[in-house]
Amino acid sequence: MARSNRVATVENEFERVLDDRLLRTVFQPIVSVESEAVVGYEGLIRGPAGSVLESPEALIKEAYRENRVVEFDWIARASASRAALAASLGPDDLLFLNIEPLAMASSCPHDLRPEIEEAFDRFRVVLEVTERSLDRDPRTLFEGIDQKRPSVYGLALDDVGADVRTMSMLPMIRPDIIKLDLKVTHTSPSAKAMKILHFVYEEVERTGATILAEGVETKRHHEVVRELGAPLAQGWLYGKPTDHPTPAYEHQAHMSHLAELALEEVPTPFEVLGRRKISRASADVLLALVHEVFSHGLHLLPPALVVMLVPGPELLTPRVLSVLGRLARREIVTGVLGAGVPPEPAPGVRGSWQHDPALDGQFAVIAVSPSTAVAVLARRTAGTNSEFEFGLIHDRQRIVCAARCLLRKLGPQPATG
User: Fold this and answer.
1) Residues 6+ apart with CB under 8 A from 337
2) Which residue in 5, 58, 272, 302 has the most C-beta neighbors within 10 A?
3) β-strand 210-213 against 333-337: which pairing, if any?
4) Largest Cα–Cα distance in the chain?
C-alpha cells in the first residue's frame, strides 16, 4: 500500500510539473581545454526545489514510466529557452540543449513555440541527443535528425561510452560534437576507456567531429582530458550549474566539417554498388556467402551493428536466426527488415517492415563495427525468384550509406510486458 501511495504521489507531482510548466533550468559552462575560457553553456533541467521530482534523473524516469517523454521534452526545451533569453548570454554564445531521441520528429506545441524559436534564432544552439533509447526507434530518430539539422548550429551525441549498444549508432548519426561520458574521463587509461576512445578517434578522423569531455571535477581530470586531445570540456572544476550565466569569453569552438563530408542518401542499399562489378548467383549461393560473412560477424566486438533486409521470410533460415540471436545477446544492435518478418524474429533481434516498393526483391546483410565493415547487397533478377545479382563490398563509406538507408526504415522495438 505504501508503494502505491508513493507512486500516486509521484504521478500527481509530475502532472503538476508539466501542467503548470514548473520546470526550471540552470546552466553549466563549457570551456576550451587549452585556455579554460568559457565558450558556451549547457542548459540542465530541474524540477521544483524540494520536490520528489527535483532531480533530472527522477524527471526523466517518470516521463518514460508514464509514456510522456515527448511532452516533457518540449516543456524542458521551452524552459531552457526562456531561461537563456532571460540571462545575460550573448547572441553568439553556444547553447547546448538536450533532446530525447523519441521527441526528435515531433511537432512543437503551439504555446511553447515563440520562446523556443526566439532562442534558436538568437543563440548558436547545439542539440544534444541523449543516449537513452537511441537504438529504440531508428526510423523516428533519423526523421528527427533530418528535421532538426537545418535549424541548429550543431548536433551532439551525449554520454558516448555509457552504453555500448548506443555507441553502435555513432557512425550512422555523424554528430558534430561527441560528448565523452564521465566514465572515460574518470577511468582513463583503463582498457575500457581506451576501447571507447579508439572508436571515437576513428569517427573524429572520418568526420572532423569535436570531442567534448564531461565530468571534469579535478585538476587531474583536466590533465587527462588534455592528454586525450579533447578541445572542449565541462564539469565542476570549471563551474557548477548556475542560474546566472555570464557571456562566453571565447566564441571560437571547433565544429565538424559535416556539410563537406555529407553522406550520400540512397533509396536502396543496392544502389551503393554503383558501377562496381556485379555477379549473379542462386539464393543458395547467396546464403552460403552470407554465412561466411556471419562467421566473421560472430567475432564482432561491440559497439557493432548488424542489419539485414530480406525479400521474404523464406531467407530467414533457422541457421541465420540462430546467428542473429547470438549477436544480439552480445549487445550488438541487430535488426531485420522485410515482408513477413515478425516484430522479434529471434530473441533480442528487432524485426520491422513498412512496405517500400523500392525494396521489393532486394536482399542485404550489413555489419559495421570499429574494425569491420562488410556488406552483401543483392536484388532479384528480372523475371526470376531464384537468381540474384549481387556484390560484396568492404568500402566503409558506402556501407554506412547502405546501413543508414535501412535504419531509416527500422521501427521501434516491440513493447515488453
Assistant:
1) 307, 308, 309, 310, 351, 352, 353, 359, 406, 409, 410
2) 272
3) unpaired
4) 70
Residue-range domain boundaries for the chain: 2-234, 269-407
Return the closest-CA partner of residue 23 out of 5, 48, 2, 56.
48
Specify the residue for cell string 536502396.
Answer: 268
The alpha-helical segments, DSSP class H, found in 276-339 are 283-297, 318-329
Q: Are 295 and 320 in contact (CB under 8 A)?
A: no
269-407: CATH topology: Endonuclease; Chain A (3.30.870)
- Please report, as a single letter, which amino acid is at residue 393: I
Whole-prediction pTM value? 0.82
Sign of dihedral through CA atoms 314, 316, 322, 323? positive
DSSP letter, residue 112:
G
User: Which amino acid does the sequence have at 143?
Assistant: E
For the 2-234 domain, the top CATH level (class) is alpha beta
Q: What is the pLDDT of residues 359-402, one digit of tens each?
A: 999 999 999 988 888 899 999 988 777 789 988 888 888 999 99
Strand order in the sheet with 305-309: 279-282, 387-393, 373-380, 362-368, 305-309, 333-337, 350-352
